């Protein structure tokens, strides 16, 4: 029976992929709106059709053009109802094809009505999809693509992509078309499609989906990187006023997520004639003010590289010690509670915990890699690492938030590519500074 279901899904996907290059992908979803991204094989005049009694006859039209780039299109669906499930399909007006029906659910209006809902947050970083023509010779750097199916099977409410969501190769980094090719090649991975459709997807970047290895604000083509990133993701916003970059935030139930840009403003830590910084002063000020104003129970700060680890290696924030210390001290001075950093980059997973006062801490959960090569960093001298949390195989994380409004608990679980539980840890609301 399982074999028959597998064959059915395989042929259904093959038929669908003959019409679509990738997607649909759910992007930012609120109580009354959602964003849906799609990529077609050729220029198409598309129509998104909702099947819902609450909005009869609702449809949106969009043209996927080659200069979009690569036949991508974004549908911004509005006028929805909170806490409702909607079916939709996407059809070509000219070429007489239609996708199967997919579905999404808007956020619940729970405030002043009930306790906040239980939430499952999937997360990971470092997605490398092999392409032999452009890869380094030798052993393939990527693998275990079934991890995306494993994540989708967990039925997450949202997926957080924590940077290095694709790996620009040498021919890609210095041309707009090369960047588009790399993003397209990664996004068209067959095993990824179910996850893209399963829940809203949110992304930040790190060096490999921004530019060259360890790249910073001096990367001359960073505006191309930003444009391509915006075309292939569907975050709620991008950047702070005129500053550029990908900084953003969004709310989900009683949680708030702050998405930081650790590349657009970054300086080289080794240059002696300028102040070393990763986030830049404007982004730091925004973060502190946004955290201070937030009423969220838990405040998740997403950043591409490890923030809390005090081991000064590679691109850890500890290499920019003055900025790291300044941010921590500002959070303490402003009495900002409930902060948990979520990071990627390291090709290994771990949890860091900084004790601020008796029984009160700030955490940083690093989850990496999804499909890239792994490294064992368990011997690094990170004095803040939670014992037993170091994992050096391909993995993903699942954060489960549950409990009544004033008794919320976070349960972290780390799974292998084949969905075997590797490690788990609980954080009570009362433990967070």
Task: Give an overview of the whole structure.
The protein is of the alpha+beta class. It has two domains: 2-105, Sandwich (Immunoglobulin-like); 119-431, Purple Acid Phosphatase, chain A, domain 2 (4-Layer Sandwich), CATH 3.60.21. Helix content is 18%, strand content 30%. The chain contains seven helices and 20 strands. The protein has helices at 2-19, 147-153, 176-187, 193-198, 222-232, 281-293, 321-333; strands at residues 20-29, 33-40, 44-51, 59-64, 72-78, 85-92, 97-98, 102-105, 119-124, 158-162, 201-204, 248-252, 255-259, 298-303, 339-343, 350-357, 360-366, 395-402, 409-416, 421-428. The strands form four sheets. The chain has a six-stranded mixed beta sheet. Strands 12-13-14-15-17-16 form a six-stranded mixed beta sheet, covered by helices on one side. Strand 6 and strand 7 (97-98) form a beta hairpin. Helix 3 runs parallel beside helix 5 (222-232). It is globular and about 65 Å long. Residues 1-16 have low confidence and may be disordered.
């Amino acid at each position: 029976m399982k074999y028959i279901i597998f064959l059915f899904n395989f042929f259904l996907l093959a038929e669908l992929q003959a019409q679509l290059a990738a997607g649909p992908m759910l992007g930012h979803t609120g109580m009354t709106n959602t964003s849906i991204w799609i990529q077609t094989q050729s220029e198409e005049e598309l129509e998104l059709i909702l099947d819902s009694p609450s909005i009869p006859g609702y449809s949106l039209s969009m043209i996927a053009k080659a200069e979009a780039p690569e036949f991508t299109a974004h549908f911004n669906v509005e006028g929805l109802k909170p806490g409702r499930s909607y079916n939709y399909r996407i059809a070509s007006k000219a070429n007489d094809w239609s996708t199967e029906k997919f579905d999404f659910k808007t956020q619940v209006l729970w405030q002043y009505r009930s306790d906040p809902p239980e939430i499952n947050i999937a997360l990971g970083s470092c997605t490398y999809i092999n392409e032999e023509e452009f890869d380094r010779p030798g052993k393939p750097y990527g693998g275990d693509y079934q991890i995306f199916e494993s994540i989708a099977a967990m039925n997450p409410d949202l997926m957080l992509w924590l940077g290095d969501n694709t790996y620009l190769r040498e021919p890609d980094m210095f041309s707009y078309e090369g960047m588009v090719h790399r993003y397209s090649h990664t996004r068209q991975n067959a095993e990824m499609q179910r996850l893209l459709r399963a829940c809203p997807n949110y992304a930040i970047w790190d060096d490999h989906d921004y530019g060259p290895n360890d790249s910073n604000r001096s990367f001359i083509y960073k505006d191309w990187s930003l444009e391509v990133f915006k075309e292939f993701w569907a975050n709620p916003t991008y950047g702070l006023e005129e500053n550029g970059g990908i900084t953003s935030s969004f709310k989900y139930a009683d949680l708030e997520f702050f998405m930081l840009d650790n590349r657009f403003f970054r300086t080289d830590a080794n240059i002696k004639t300028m102040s070393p910084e990763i986030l830049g002063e404007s982004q730091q000020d925004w973060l502190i003010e946004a955290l201070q104003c937030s009423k969220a129970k838990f405040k998740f700060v997403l950043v591409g590289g490890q923030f809390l680890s005090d081991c000064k290696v590679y691109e850890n924030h500890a290499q920019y010690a003055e900025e790291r210390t300044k941010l921590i001290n500002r959070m303490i001075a402003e009495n900002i509670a409930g902060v948990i950093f979520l990071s990627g980059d390291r090709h290994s997973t771990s949890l860091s915990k900084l004790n601020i006062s008796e029984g009160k801490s700030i955490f940083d959960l690093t989850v990496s890699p999804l499909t890239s090569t792994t490294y064992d960093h368990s011997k690094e001298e990170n004095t803040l690492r939670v014992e037993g949390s170091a994992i050096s195989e391909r993995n993903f994380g699942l954060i489960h938030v549950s409990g009544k409004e004033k008794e919320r608990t976070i349960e972290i679980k780390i799974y292998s590519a084949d969905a075997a539980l590797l490690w788990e840890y609980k954080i009570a609301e009362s433990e967070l500074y």
